[in-house]
């Protein structure tokens, strides 16, 4: 099942992150390290979770959703156990100082970018399903139309929610926390959009949320098939591998992708415009940059 997840994640978006976007690429393994300690310890090893999530924010600002969600969950858990004084104790400081440090720097920077420079553009306003989840499905499987992508995103979320509600009492503590963190992240994304007018994460900025959802899918499928014959899991794994390999061979190749094809060479973009407009196109750059682009 882990191999199937890996095949899916190597369809399109992760490849470009690993080779073209070092910040996004660095944030993913840091997030996974935080999830590892979260699941392994059941949320008891707080410092490594805070540390890896905090460093992930330094690599990719959108990882702050999970840092905030984990902080809120941790605070609510101590409040529920009537141990809130531990949050303000010396032990609490030693466990959470990376979060304090990163949030005190990153939150003002993000708000400054949004409300002062107005350059917080890596997002869209079409909705959570269409932008944050739909873009991953659409670019992984280009034969799907927009409506199908929207419905698949909705089904994806609803099935995970149904699994959580039906098996909540039997879930391992770490996995249950990860389910709840994903739900809190969805809430934070909508809060930011409707209250702070921050757009929905889109494309590269949304991939931080796709990884934990894929982990939860693998966990749910494995848990449901535990009582089934082992042959079922082997057949399902084989079908998923065959499907992913077929999509990769038919719809992907090594020298272009949907998002980067027009940016791989500015001259190629001008040639495409020339064929469309049937007239010459000149770059609208300042003089010091104009000489850098030669058709």
Task: Provide a brief overview of the structure.
Helices cover 71% and strands 1% of the residues.
Task: Tell me about this structure.
The protein is mainly α and about 300 residues long. It folds into two domains: about 1-255, no CATH class; about 265-295, no CATH class. Helices cover about 70% and strands about 0% of the residues. It contains 13 helices and two strands, in the order H-H-H-H-H-H-E-H-H-H-E-H-H-H-H. It has a two-stranded antiparallel ribbon. Mean pLDDT is about 75; it is low at about 1-10, about 255-265 and about 285-295.
Number of helices: 13
Counted up, domains total 2
Identify the strand order in the major beta sheet: 1-2
The ordered string of helix (H) and strand (E) elements is HHHHHHEHHHEHHHH
Shape: globular
Helical/strand content category: mainly alpha
Q: Give the rounded overall mean pLDDT.
A: 77
Which spans of ≥5 residues are poorly predicted at pLDDT below 50?
A: 1-12, 254-263, 285-295
* Rg measurement, Å: 22 Å
